[in-house]
């Protein structure tokens, strides 16, 4: 989700799909795809939640790129995801080179120079990890320490050790040694080499993911993995499952500006700053304000006499914090999740939740579609003046409210009516994405709906 970048990042619209600059520029995903497009690169193979296929296709189409899709019915971290991609590629070319890229990082500089230089080592069976030359001591990143150079492969080293999120003192000493690098999460290897390493170190996960690929169902732009099989895979990153155990792993130091953009402080540090150190987007006025990040949405935001603040405005939520406390956004999101707040799940126009006007909105504006992944939960409210009908289109829902028995599962075709002013809690109680529709009814429609239900009864 990119929790620390809320309210820009939501469960259903995570930061990968959001514009980095806040001014409608390319999303993180689009920037990643375009960075490695054309020339020696094939079209991308994208692994994501099964529910995100439409969004992926739209984002790629907007930048003139086509790609293949692998849909995950449940999330199992990066290890099974990357393995699924390797198995898919190996169907047509077992020795295909895979460049594995997180889609939510910001990179300035020509990473592809190093990628191209390392292609021969990967083709000969090495697993190449790209280590970023560190700019400062950072306690929130993982590190890779380089060992001896690998003969015949200039710039490639054995991996001496992995260090996960060191203390500030240790990070400073590692950087001073000059042979330890930020772990970027970017890797290059042959598909069959990765599959072989899973066979050695994680045979159960290999069997589960292979069964998920073999049992996959076709989708519009690719496949959706079999849910039961994929759910049996180990839920761990590739680093822990394979890289930290493999004798084939190596590291290529890479001198580019890189950030995983994990919090709003990183967005500020990477943005174009004014003379006072402010980074802003939208209609913003700053008076005697410095070193701040301000993102306006649909209104003028005026900031007077402040420093080190972070203000992010969206249609349905406003974040106000400072650089010192930016990491605590994650804590706020945890509370909002526990409360079932829809503002965590997806971007919703603010006036939809507060609609009280007696005149009914057009039918198209009164219908909303929602998708929840495994165990996700939100609160649905009927704002009035009429009731709201909730209909399950796909999956299995657990609905708890004044007139709903939470022990009764609601499957495709089931529907409930929520009285004006009341709310229900909706949770995905199945193994596949839950898709449901809410329709805000006018009083007349509610009466007709009740009459129809009595007739059916």
Question: How are the SSEs placed, and which strands pair?
Answer:
Elements: H1 28-35, E1 45-49, H2 53-62, E2 68-72, H3 78-90, E3 97-100, E4 106-108, H4 111-123, E5 127-132, E6 142-149, E7 157-164, H5 168-177, E8 180-190, H6 191-201, H7 203-214, E9 217-218, E10 222-224, H8 227-231, H9 238-243, E11 249-254, E12 257-259, H10 264-270, E13 279-281, E14 284-287, E15 293-295, E16 301-304, E17 309-313, E18 318-322, H11 329-338, H12 342-345, H13 350-353, E19 367-372, E20 377-381, E21 388-394, E22 396-400, E23 410-411, E24 415-418, E25 423-428, E26 434-440, H14 443-456
Parallel strand pairs: 1-2, 2-10, 5-11, 13-15, 14-16, 15-17
Antiparallel strand pairs: 3-8, 4-12, 5-8, 6-7, 6-8, 7-11, 9-10, 17-18, 19-26, 20-25, 21-24, 21-26, 22-23, 22-25
């Amino acid at each position: 989700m990119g929790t620390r970048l809320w309210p820009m990042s939501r469960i259903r619209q995570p930061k990968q799909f959001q514009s980095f600059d806040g001014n409608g520029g390319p999303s993180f995903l689009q920037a990643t795809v375009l960075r490695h497009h054309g020339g020696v690169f094939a079209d991308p193979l994208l692994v994501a939640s099964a529910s995100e296929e439409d969004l992926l296709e739209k984002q790629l189409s907007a930048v003139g790129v086509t790609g293949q899709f692998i849909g995950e019915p449940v999330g199992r971290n990066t290890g099974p995801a990357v393995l699924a991609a390797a198995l898919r590629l190996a169907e047509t070319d077992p020795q295909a080179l895979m460049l594995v890229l997180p889609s939510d990082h910001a990179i300035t500089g020509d990473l592809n120079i190093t990628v191209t230089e390392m292609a021969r080592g990967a083709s000969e069976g090495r697993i190449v990890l790209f280590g970023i030359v560190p700019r400062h001591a950072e306690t929130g990143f993982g590190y890779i320490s380089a060992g001896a150079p690998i003969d015949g492969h200039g710039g490639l080293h054995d991996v001496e050790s992995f260090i996960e999120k060191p203390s500030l003192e240790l990070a400073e000493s590692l950087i001073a040694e000059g042979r330890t690098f930020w772990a970027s999460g970017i890797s290059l290897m042959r598909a069959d080499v990765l599959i072989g390493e899973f066979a050695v170190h994680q045979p159960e996960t290999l069997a589960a993911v292979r069964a998920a690929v073999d049992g996959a169902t076709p989708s519009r732009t690719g496949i959706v993995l079999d849910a039961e099989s994929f759910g049996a895979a180990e839920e761990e990153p590739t680093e822990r499952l394979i890289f930290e155990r493999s004798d084939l792993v190596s590291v290529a130091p890479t001198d580019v500006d890189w950030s995983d953009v994990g919090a709003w402080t990183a967005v500020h540090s990477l943005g174009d700053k004014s003379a006072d150190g402010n980074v802003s987007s939208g209609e913003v006025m700053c008076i005697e304000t410095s070193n701040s990040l301000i993102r306006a949405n649909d209104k003028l935001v005026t900031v007077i006499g402040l420093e080190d603040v972070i203000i992010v405005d969206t249609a349905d939520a406003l974040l106000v914090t400072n650089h010192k406390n930016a990491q605590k956004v994650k804590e706020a999101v945890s509370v909002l999740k526990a409360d079932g707040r829809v503002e965590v799940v997806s971007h919703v126009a603010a006036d939809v939740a507060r609609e009280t006007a007696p005149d009914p909105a057009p039918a198209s504006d009164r219908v909303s579609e929602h998708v929840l992944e495994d165990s996700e939960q939100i609160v649905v409210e009927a704002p009035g003046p009429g009731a709201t009908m909730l209909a399950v289109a796909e999956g299995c829902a657990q609905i708890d409210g004044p007139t709903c028995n939470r022990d009764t599962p609601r499957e495709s075709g089931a529907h409930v009516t929520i009285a004006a002013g009341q709310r229900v809690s909706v949770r995905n109680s199945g193994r596949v994405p839950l898709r449901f529709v809410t329709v805000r009814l006018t009083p007349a429609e509610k009466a007709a709906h009740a009459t129809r239900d009595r007739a059916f009864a």
